[in-house]
Design brief:
two-stranded parallel ribbon, 8-stranded mixed beta sheet, globular, 11 helices, D-Maltodextrin-Binding Protein, domain 2, 31% helix, 20% strand, 14 strands, alpha/beta
């Protein structure tokens, strides 16, 4: 962490000291470094909507902004339709938001969870997951579980598939399963929605299985009578190589495999399994990537104003991203692109005065 902060400060200081009015726009990585040192405050009030799974971050962000910008207020919107800024699990803002800018804000993942307290862990192959979510396998005593779970003790309990799932969670999970197996993922029992509500998952019945965002699972697990088991995914025939959806290693590793495309108003991410994941700072080896990931989006709605852009810029600062509890911070290159787009029209650093 010290190395990363030192590098950011060094790059930003150099950029500030040498920038002139004739220079081209700063590259995204320099903008990201500058964002750590500088606050851009614009007077006004902006209502921000958050997914239910990010409620903890909402109040912390508002307090942090007010602590550094006395006349800039980021309140929590009553609903997405009443928001100036929408942070959403959906790939697109709601119909009420006429977005003048839309960028990645964080990373989430699709996970398979089950309420089987007698199991210590669960490995799934793409074929096994497909057979469960299409209704081909209906009991936890099916011999197919023993293949991917050595020492598995069969239990004569019916599998209850929870039909509610989130569309982008299903899309990302299905794409990864197809990458591993070469076959399309079948999930005919699932009914995708744009965004799931954690409150809809009060208690999973015994024997249930569901495909949900990892952020929702983390909220649910805090309040569940029985903490759900999160399945690991086998990427080859060796159960020891099954990948678990860890927010500190495997999900951030997969996040470095995104391809970035951009327009004047949008930054879009597409995951590409063929990209070799980058190791974290201080390591020479990248953790095994959990590749069923997708971006959480930040959309700026309605009229284009400086205060909306300033609040969005603040939310994309690394200290704000560090407040995340249930989602994963953006990789630096992606965060730089998001910052570059939302910062358009805001004051930029000027050259240091000459002696």
């Amino acid at each position: 962490m010290f190395r990363r902060v030192f590098f950011s400060v060094a790059v930003a200081t150099l950029a500030i000291g040498t920038l002139t009015a004739c220079d081209p726009p700063l590259p995204p990585e320099v903008l990201a470094a500058l964002a750590e040192q500088t606050f851009i405050c614009e007077p006004g009030e902006v209502a921000v909507s958050y997914p239910n799974s990010m409620a903890d971050e909402a109040s912390m962000n508002g307090d942090a902004i007010l602590g550094n910008c006395a006349d800039m207020f980021a309140t929590i919107a009553d609903s997405p339709s009443a928001a100036d800024l929408q942070i959403s699990q959906s790939s697109e803002p709601t119909a009420e938001c006429k977005a003048f800018a839309s960028v990645p804000y964080a990373i989430d993942a699709a996970v398979v969870i089950t309420n089987m307290p007698n199991f210590g862990a669960l490995n799934l192959t793409p074929n096994l997951a497909s057979d469960i979510f299409s209704g081909k396998i209906t009991s936890w005593n099916d011999p197919a579980f023993e293949v991917s779970n050595p020492g598995y003790i069969p239990e004569d309990t019916a599998i209850t598939v929870i039909p509610q799932t989130q569309q982008n969670a299903l899309d990302s999970f299905g794409a990864w399963m197809k990458t591993i197996s070469g076959k399309s993922f079948s999930a005919t029992l699932l009914k995708p929605e744009a965004e799931l509500d954690p409150l809809a998952f009060t208690e999973l019945p015994y024997g249930a299985i569901a495909l949900v965002p990892n952020s929702l699972n983390l909220v649910y697990a805090l309040n569940a009578m029985d903490t759900p088991i999160v399945a690991s995914i086998m990427v080859d025939k060796n159960p020891d190589n099954a990948v678990f959806s860890d927010t500190t290693t495997s999900i951030p590793s997969a996040a470095t495999q995104f391809k970035v495309t951009k327009t004047e108003t949008k930054v879009v991410l597409k995951h590409d399994s063929s990209i070799t994941p980058l190791p974290p700072i201080g390591s020479d080896v990248a953790p095994a990537p959990y590749e069923a990931i997708y971006p959480v989006s930040l959309s700026l709605c309605g009229a284009d104003t400086k205060v909306k852009r300033a609040v969005a810029r603040y939310l994309l600062r690394q200290d704000s991203q560090g407040m995340f509890v249930n989602v994963v911070a953006l990789p630096e290159n992606v965060r730089g692109e998001s910052l570059a787009l939302v910062s358009k029209g805001l004051p930029q650093p000027t050259a240091a005065p000459e002696n």
